[in-house]
Design goal:
about 425 residues, mainly alpha, Proton glutamate symport protein, 18 helices, about 80% helix, about 0% strand, globular, binds aspartic acid
Amino acid sequence: MSRMISSKFKAKEGDKREFPLLFAMIIAIVSGGASGYIWGEAMIVVAWIGEFFLTALKMLIVPLVVASIITGVAALGDVRKLGRLGGISVAYYASTTLIAVTIGLIMANLFQPGVGVSLGDLQAPTPKAGDVGITDLVLSLVHPNIIAAAAEMKLLPIIVFCIAFAAALSTLGEQGKPVVNFFEGLNHAMMQLVHWLMLLAPLGVFALIASRLGMAGGGDAFIAQLSGLASYVLTVISGLLTHAVVLAMLLLWISKRSILQYLKHLATPLLTAFSTASSSATLPLTMDGVQAAGVQEQARRFVLPLGATVNMDGTALYEAVAVMFIAQAMGIDLTLGQQLLVLLTATMAAIGAAGIPEAGLVTMVIVLEAVGLPLEGIGLLLAVDWFLDRCRTTINVWGDCVGAAVVGALHREK
Ligand code: ASP
């Protein structure tokens, strides 16, 4: 009898974990939104719970990324296969980001959200450019001290180091095996920690949403902020939704997966992305969801950490709409050539943006500079950016998840 129960349990283990969690996450989002809406600033008292969840997630990132990349690349066994996997991934990242910016530009031209917006509301923030030039992008791939990079959570140099390290391991044959085994063990242990932490996700998500709405001053203040910039917010959101559908089609076409089945496994990371506004902090849950969805292992271990750092479709799309909006509000008509420049620079700016809240707002500076718009234009967007940040982060994570499935399918076909 007990054996029967245990085998039944194993068979349904995935669903047993996922269904109650999904249900709890939906309740958390709805009740968090409702509490923040109704009780406003009073909900700031639960902010520490959200902070605890977020910090615990961040605590897992570095060891998880290191173990995931090293085992993923080492399992390829041959540097040429790494070239192929890397090539497919980069092609996916570049093409989907360019599609995202194009959708953003089309939406902004179609809806003209900035036309008629008063510049009287313009505040003058002092945006900092950060790492944004082409050479800075290349330089951000390396770091003088790998331990310091880990301490500062600079993921790109860590990823580059781990890819090179695993490639070196795979040339060592027998000698490299104990090292690979060590990282295999580390990877399994980290995933177990992720499972445990997921039990806290509904509470964390509730607290993050309720306290953030509280900080915005509650429901009425939130609605006032949104309606002040309604056409801009709607343009960004319709662009993001359109891109999400394009990605879903890609998923269906190339990896031949059911979109709903895939979404079922990914609901927790996607809702967490919305609640945290950080693709990096969401990464542990993204990796768990994509694993549960059965995506090809090496592709998943390679594509997701890299994607969380460089593949940001939502951010790229938003930056294109935001820049067009600022130009329209200032009565400047961007020519086709200038819009092509937006296409290229927004792609670069999105690659340069870190997977943390509001990073896209900062890297937008390169797009504004490229087309000669004043940086102060960003002031127009500040009031609603915290909300749009959550929407674009969700699409950033969705882009990584679809990427893992698509790259996995293409890699397997070889
Ligand atoms: N918050 C976004 C992310 O983590 C980046 C951005 O600000 O656009 O993916």
